[in-house]
Specification:
alpha+beta, Pseudouridine synthase, nine-stranded mixed β-sheet, 8 helices, globular
């Protein structure tokens, strides 16, 4: 069984929980997820089955889209609605739509984020959430991420009152903490804030319409059509350039051969070597030997 199984992750499960459950349902050990979703977050979680585990990192590193909600008025330890309150400040003025739109525009592009304490980032060999559970706050490295698009989803003219929320959609790079983005939006508006809702609506080329629930997958296994739910490896590599090769070259590619770089080779990019619409391997320019291309991953060698 080889392919990508786009799962609609339910609330209350970690990404690892989902992998464990799919291993049991499909009765196969070779299952990997493509980017952690917090337990309380729902949405698109492509799972790689069998040979597709080789390309899990390519799906993880591709762009993702989320729909979330910012609540102004208080911040929390976890930067979402499930943590303890840290700071509180009631809205003491009206916030206009134009003001929010300007903030969203200011946060579009390359920005710097500091990972929240309740996250899986490792510092000195230990995950940040382990320090947090011990009541410790430690220094953690900031990093640059890219916000490709950040838009307001609702129609209103102004916010006012003790506490107000608004919904947004964000398309972003790998490593973006949407919880932290919600906090940053609040900071620019002058108020503590947290992320009160979040759903991942896209991961790489996979969207909600491509996804299946656990119940649908179990039904497919029971009635022997689960293979029809699997998407080909090519769907997880659609964001990479593709290079069509002959059957003779394909045999060499399967064995990890190196080649002279073709004149039309895309500069500085990893390229999918494809034979008869089947992805055989991923190649890149050799890091030390000029004019040579070499395999990064061989996907099909049997």
């Amino acid at each position: 069984m080889n392919g990508i199984l786009p799962l609609w992750k339910p609330r209350g499960m970690t990404s690892h929980d989902c992998v464990f459950k799919i291993r049991k349902i499909l009765r196969t050990k070779k299952v990997g997820h493509t980017g952690t979703l917090d337990p309380e977050v729902t949405g698109v979680l492509p799972l790689c089955i069998g040979r597709a585990t080789k390309i899990a990192s390519y799906i993880t590193e591709s762009g993702k889209t989320y729909e979330g909600e910012v609540t102004l008025g208080y911040s929390t330890t976890t930067e979402d609605a499930w943590g303890e309150k840290v700071e509180e400040k009631k809205l003491d003025r009206k916030i206009t739509r134009e003001e929010v739109l300007k903030v969203l525009k200011d946060l579009t592009g390359e920005i710097v984020q500091t990972p929240p304490m309740y996250s899986a980032v490792k510092v000195n060999g230990k995950r940040l959430y382990e320090y947090a559970r011990e009541g410790k706050v430690i220094e953690r490295p900031s990093r640059k991420v890219t916000i490709y698009d950040l838009e307001l989803l609702e129609q209103w003219d102004e916010l006012s009152g003790d506490q107000q929320s608004f919904s947004f959609r964000v398309s972003c790079s790998k490593g973006t903490y949407v919880r932290t983005l919600a906090v940053q939006i609040g900071e620019k508006l002058g108020y503590p804030a947290h992320m009160s809702k979040l759903t991942r609506t896209r991961s790489a080329s996979f969207t909600q319409k491509d996804c299946y629930t656990f119940e649908q997958i179990e039904e497919a296994v029971k009635n022997n059509y689960v293979h029809s739910l699997l998407k080909p490896l090519e769907d997880g590599l659609s964001h990479l350039p593709k290079w069509e090769i002959s059957d003779t070259v394909a045999e060499k590619v399967k064995n990890g051969a190196r080649f002279d770089k073709p004149e039309e080779w895309p500069e500085g990019e990893e390229v999918v070597m494809s034979y008869e619409n089947t992805s055989i391997a991923i190649y890149q320019e050799h890091p030390t030997k000029q004019g040579i291309i070499k395999p990064v991953k061989v996907l099909f060698n049997d």
